[in-house]
Each structure stands twice: as structure tokens, then as C-alpha cells.
Design brief:
With about 675 residues, this protein is mainly β. Helix content is about 5%, strand content about 55%.
């Protein structure tokens, strides 16, 4: 509770500069001077020229708020190569399985892509998953996805790419946005976004609540007396304030609270995820531009595992409190119009501890009490320069990361207090250097050619290092000796656009992750986290955008040829496809705006077959789905009737297949609702 109150301090501190802007007066004796207009944007520093060198996908607000599910993961599926660990969305999957990645580098539940919200990393400190239900799409103004590894700030997390979520500014919002909807299973969702100008700054308050009985993820042929629908009850609330500190300075503060509760597959298989986050950011836009940021995260997770044959409690992961804290400072000195120089440092630290109890499936008696946890940290120093030479843009950057893994342990005792297992990981530290470089050439007014090469790293999470877990009947063991993953990759592509509104992007890539962390099968029903020699992924990503009058088409397609490079103990995996990596995936949205305020859109998606496991024994069948979105304005009231349809073809989306034990994704679902101010 103390953290909840103290997290509000950055926002309360803004009252002073906001009020000061209102109270300032020019003395009667002062000579009038032309005042420079103070413009507060709520954004970070402008994108550097290197943005034209890498493969970048941008989703604007109109597409973000018009998804059939109304959820952020559904929006991101429009990006070529975007992938969640499992195909299920954040209403019907365990929160700890919500890892996101790009470039066919999936394979486990930890995120290999860096996800930022207004510059702040959002991944869970202990698990590395993304709390998708805590991100309200209606609060966003833009999503920018940079495919490929490496970045400046927080680059140690950008193994597969960077997903930057940017909050909407007042210029794109009405003072009040509200929506409410209900579906054919009586599930409900409601959201509110209020924005107020205060002096020359603004404050935005948001809230969202989603709840419902859910659907049964178990196929009809596998239902048991203990099978239940995947019920969910999640809420999120946040407060964001932005204020000027001077002509070229602005301060941004955010507080975000959320809680996500779910029941999956069996009665009593309940999980919760909750968090309290706060951040403070100061942006300087003068000649010496800078971006200074500090943040703190307090998270917790719980999960009850039910035995799949006796339907009794097998494991109670009752608490996993964790803390993340960090910050960055980036400086852009004035070095001439031909150069954009970035110099800076960033820091992240994660700590946490699992607390769980194991039970006998027959008698229900307590068998073990277990604890696991530790801390990881990295300090990064970076420098990057963009150089413009007419039609040619060059970029090059270096990072040095000091990595620390400390105090990792796993301890189990029996009910009498006798130690059953005691694993203490060795404290480790190291310096790792990474780099990225590339060039873009504007061959004509409509055609840009680009190429880049890069390296990157990802630290193992505390979850991977210390926490064993069970997805009954498969047990996956942790590994305190895991090394960091290291990426080497390159890409080449082109961007072509015409005056008629046609845009085409095409990128070929070749990435290789050394020491890739995977859940490696040891024997039936037992896996262990191991560093594979490598995962190699090469492929092509394509994007298409077209506008003809009020009709638009946006499409993406990704092909990947990914394989495990095995040797020694993992030799039998050599040449296998990594788990949960499809060869093909694609999305196409056709939208029509017949009149002002109207919106009609249909989205067709396809994902090819995937393997559940590293031995390629269990297959997730391909799935093709059709979604729809319709918004009809109700006169000039500001209200609109919204109709949404998910998986209209009622395709069986297989999200898990463990020896024939199957979980399914969302069935055909229809929504009706009202929204105001969008």
C-alpha cells in the first residue's frame, strides 16, 4: 500500500510547474519581448534518421482502436512476424505465457522483443512476459515496431526488435472517451479515457474493466467433470500528467495499476497477475536535446496447478513478488546538421522470489515448501551517430553492457522443515559489447533501399534461472547456469510508395541466436531449460498499404525458415524447427469509410502449422480466421454503435497440444456496444 501512495508523488509534483505557468506575469517595468510558444507534446525525442535504415512498421491510432477483440495483442498481430508464445490471447492464457517476439525467434514464454510504453520497459521483472491486459489500446496514439535486434537505450532487451507504444496526445483526443460492450457469452468490457488541459500541460486518466465467464478451452471430446470455462476478471487504471518546465523542457509522469485474474481449463486452476508501476521522464528539446527517465515496477503473480487426472490441487504458486527499477539518460549534442549523435546510459535491475507449496495429488497433503529467486541487473553505455550525405544516410552504434546475476537460489523443504533440495547459483558478472550499423539510399522520390547488420543480447530471466513449473503432466526444470542469449543478424530491404497512395515494403533477414534458451526435452513429461548452440532464422517480411478513395487495404506477410542448431546433448534437435514458430503468417485488413464517422473493416489472418515441442512430436494445426469491425455514428451525438466479430468462421484454433491433450483459442464471438468520443 505504501508503494501505491508513493507512486503518485511524481504526478502531484507537477502541480507546481502547472500552476507556475498560469501565475507568471510580466512586471510593468519590463520591456515586452516576443514570447516563444511553449508546446507540450507528451512524446519523447524525435526519431533519428536511422529510422529509415531499419525495417519499421507503424500503426496509427485509427487502426489501433478498430480491432475486433479490442485488445492490444490483436492489434499487434497486424505486424509481419509478430508472435506470442501461444496463439491464445490475454483472456484465455496463463499470464506467464505472454511472451512476445519477432523474426521467428520464439520458443519459450519470455519476450525476446523489447516493449516500451512512452519509453519505459513494461516486461515483468521476474518472468519477462508482457502484461497485455494492462495496456489499453484506446489510450495509444501510435505503435512503432522496429524489426531486428539492437537499439540504443535498453538495447539489452531488444534481441528480436523493439515495440514502442506511444500514448495519445490531447490533439488526437476529445476530453472524454468512453466505451462499453457485451458479447454473446455475456462477457463485458468498459473503458474510460478523460483528458484535461491544465495550464500549458495536460492530465489523462484512464480505466478499463474486462470480465466474463469465458469459453471452454477444452475440446468437447476431452471434457471432464472438472472442466470449466476460462473465466477472467481484469482491470487497469492509470494517470498520466505532462507539463512544461520551460520553453524547451517538459516533464512526464505516469502511474499505472492493474490486476488480472483468470481460471484456465480446470475448476480451481486460478491465476492472478497484478502490478503498480510509476515513472518520471524529463525531455529537453533545445540545442542540447536530452531524455532522462526513471521508473519502478512492483509486480506479483500467483497460480494454482490442478492435477489433470485426479483434478486435485498439485501446486500452489501462491506468490511471486518482484521489483523492477531502472532509468536512462540520453543526450543529443549539437554536432551539425549532417549528424545526429546519441550518447547515453541506461540501467535495469530485477529482483523477486517465488513462494509455492506442492501437494500430494491423492491425499491432498502438503509435500514440499519451495522458494526460488534472485536478482539480475545490467548497466548499458551507448553511442550512436547518424550521418546524412545527400541521398545516403549512414548509421553506426556501439553498446557496452555490464551484466550481473546474483543471489539466485532454489530451496525445497518437507513439512517437517528438512531440506529436500538446495540449489545456489554462482554470482556472475561480465561486460558484453554489441553494435549495429546500416545505410539507406533514397534512389528516387518513391524508392528507398536499405541494409543493416546488428548484434544483441538478452539476459536470462529470474524465471528461467530459478523457477521450475508444471503444465500438467509436463514438468519443466529451471537452470541457474544459463548464459545470456546473443544475436547476430543482418537484413536488406526496400520501401516503395507512389503518389497514388500505394506503399510496399520488403525485407529479407538472416538472424542467429547463440545460446538460445529453450525448454529441452529430457524424457517424457520432463523438460529443462538449456542453452541451445543456436537458433537460426532467415526469411522475408512484406507489407502493403493502399488507399483508393474511402477504401483502404493494409496487409502483412512473413515467411521464416527457422531451425535449431544442435550438438552434444542436443544433437537430436539439430535441424528441427523451434517450438511455436510458424513457417508462414499473414494478415490483411480491408476497410471502408462510406461517410464521416462510419467504419467497416474485415481482417483475414492465417498462421501455419507449429510444433508444440522441440522433438516435433505434437503439431498445432494451421488456422485461418476472419474478424470484422463496424462503427455507425448515431447522429451528431458523439456516440457510435459498434459491432465486432471475432473468428467469424469458427475455426478451431489449437493453442496447446501435449500428447493429444489440447487447448483451443477463442471460438466465434459477436460483440455489440456503444462508444463516445472516438
Amino acid at each position: 500500500m505504501l508503494l501505491r501512495h508513493s507512486a503518485c508523488a511524481p504526478v502531484l509534483l507537477l502541480c507546481a510547474p502547472l500552476a507556475a505557468q498560469e501565475a507568471q506575469e510580466t512586471p510593468d517595468t519590463a520591456t515586452p519581448q516576443p514570447a516563444k510558444e511553449i508546446i507540450v507534446t507528451g512524446r519523447g525525442l524525435a526519431q533519428t534518421p536511422s529510422a529509415a535504415i531499419y525495417a519499421v512498421t507503424t500503426l496509427e491510432r485509427g487502426r489501433i482502436v478498430a480491432s475486433a477483440s479490442g485488445r492490444i495483442e490483436d492489434v499487434l498481430l497486424n505486424v509481419a512476424g509478430f508472435q506470442q508464445f501461444r496463439r491464445s490471447d490475454s483472456r484465455s492464457s496463463n499470464p506467464s505465457a505472454q511472451g512476445v517476439t519477432l523474426r521467428a525467434l520464439g520458443g519459450n514464454a519470455t519476450s525476446r522483443a523489447l516493449v516500451l510504453l512512452d519509453g519505459v520497459p513494461v516486461a515483468d521483472p521476474f518472468f519477462g512476459y508482457i502484461p497485455l491486459s494492462a495496456i489499453a489500446p484506446e489510450s495509444l496514439g501510435q505503435i512503432r515496431v522496429t524489426h531486428g535486434g539492437g537499439s540504443g537505450p535498453f538495447g539489452a532487451g531488444a534481441l528480436a526488435g523493439t515495440i514502442e507504444l506511444e500514448s495519445a496526445a490531447p490533439a488526437s483526443l476529445r476530453p472524454l472517451l468512453a466505451s462499453a460492450a457485451i458479447n454473446d457469452r455475456a462477457e463485458t468490457e468498459a473503458s474510460l479515457l478523460a483528458t484535461a488541459q491544465i495550464g500549458r500541460g495536460f492530465v489523462t486518466a484512464s480505466g478499463r474493466w474486462d470480465r466474463g465467464a469465458g469459453f471452454n478451452t477444452t475440446p468437447a471430446s476431452q471434457l471432464t467433470p472438472a472442466s470449466v470455462d476460462a473465466a477472467f476478471d481484469t482491470w487497469q487504471t492509470g494517470l498520466r500528467a505532462v507539463a512544461p518546465l520551460g520553453r524547451d523542457l517538459e516533464v512526464q509522469a505516469r502511474v499505472n495499476l492493474f490486476r488480472d485474474a483468470r481460471t484456465l481449463r480446470f475448476r480451481g486452476a486460478d491465476s492472478t497477475s497484478e502490478g503498480q508501476d510509476a515513472s518520471l521522464r524529463i525531455i529537453g528539446r533545445g540545442a542540447w536535446a536530452f531524455d532522462a527517465l526513471a521508473y519502478v515496477q512492483a509486480r506479483d503473480f500467483s497460480n494454482i496447478v490442478i492435477n489433470a487426472t485426479r483434478f486435485t490441487r498439485a501446486l500452489d504458486q501462491r506468490r511471486t513478488p518482484s521489483t523492477g527499477l531502472g532509468g536512462k539518460i540520453e543526450l543529443r549534442p549539437p554536432v551539425g546538421e549532417a549528424h545526429t549523435l546519441r550518447i547515453g546510459a541506461d540501467y535495469r535491475r530485477a529482483s523477486g522470489e517465488l513462494q509455492e507449496e506442492a501437494y500430494n495429488a491423492v491425499t491432498g497433503a502438503l509435500t514440499e515448501r519451495r522458494r526460488a529467486g534472485g536478482a539480475t541487473a545490467n548497466l548499458g553505455l551507448f553511442i550512436e551517430d547518424d550521418w546524412r550525405l545527400g541521398a545516403l544516410t549512414l548509421t553506426g552504434g556501439l553498446r557496452a553492457d555490464h551484466i550481473v546475476i546474483s543471489d539466485t537460489f532454489y530451496r525445497a523443504v518437507n513439512p517437517a522443515g528438512t531440506t529436500v533440495s538446495n540449489v545456489v547459483g554462482a554470482d556472475r558478472s561480465d561486460w558484453v559489447a554489441t553494435w549495429r550499423a546500416g545505410a539507406a539510399y533514397q534512389a528516387s522520390e518513391h524508392l528507398r533501399l536499405r541494409g543493416a547488420a546488428y548484434t544483441g543480447i538478452r539476459l536470462p530471466t529470474l524465471n528461467e534461472l530459478t523457477r521450475p513449473f508444471v503444465v500438467f503432466p509436463v514438468v519443466t526444470e529451471a537452470n541457474a547456469a544459463l548464459a545470456s542469449e546473443r544475436l547476430e543478424g543482418f537484413e536488406a530491404g526496400l520501401d516503395w510508395q507512389t503518389d497514388a497512395g500505394l506503399q510496399i515494403s520488403l525485407t529479407a533477414f538472416d538472424n542467429r541466436v547463440k545460446d538460445a534458451i529453450a525448454n529441452v526435452t529430457q524424457r517424457p513429461n520432463l523438460r529443462r531449460r538449456e542453452n541451445l548452440p543456436a537458433i537460426a532464422a532467415r526469411g522475408i517480411e512484406a507489407g502493403l498499404g493502399a488507399q483508393v478513395g474511402r477504401l483502404s487495404l493494409n496487409a502483412s506477410l512473413a515467411y521464416s525458415d527457422a531451425e535449431i542448431e544442435g550438438s552434444g546433448a542436443s544433437l537430436e534437435l539439430d535441424g528441427n524447427r523451434p517450438p511455436h514458430v510458424p513457417r508462414w503468417s499473414g494478415s490483411a485488413t480491408l476497410a471502408w469509410q462510406p461517410a464521416a464517422g462510419w467504419q467497416i473493416a474485415a481482417t483475414l489472418r492465417h498462421v501455419a502449422a507449429q510444433f508444440e515441442d522441440d522433438l516435433e512430436t505434437d503439431v498445432l494445426a494451421p488456422a485461418t480466421t476472419l474478424d470484422a469491425f463496424v462503427a455507425v455514428p448515431l447522429g451528431r451525438s458523439g456516440f457510435a454503435l459498434v459491432l465486432r466479430g471475432e473468428n467469424l468462421t469458427d475455426t478451431a484454433i489449437i493453442t496447446r497440444n501435449a500428447g493429444g491433450s489440447i487447448d483451443l483459442g477463442i471460438p466465434r464471438t459477436g460483440w455489440i456496444g456503444l462508444r463516445y468520443g472516438f
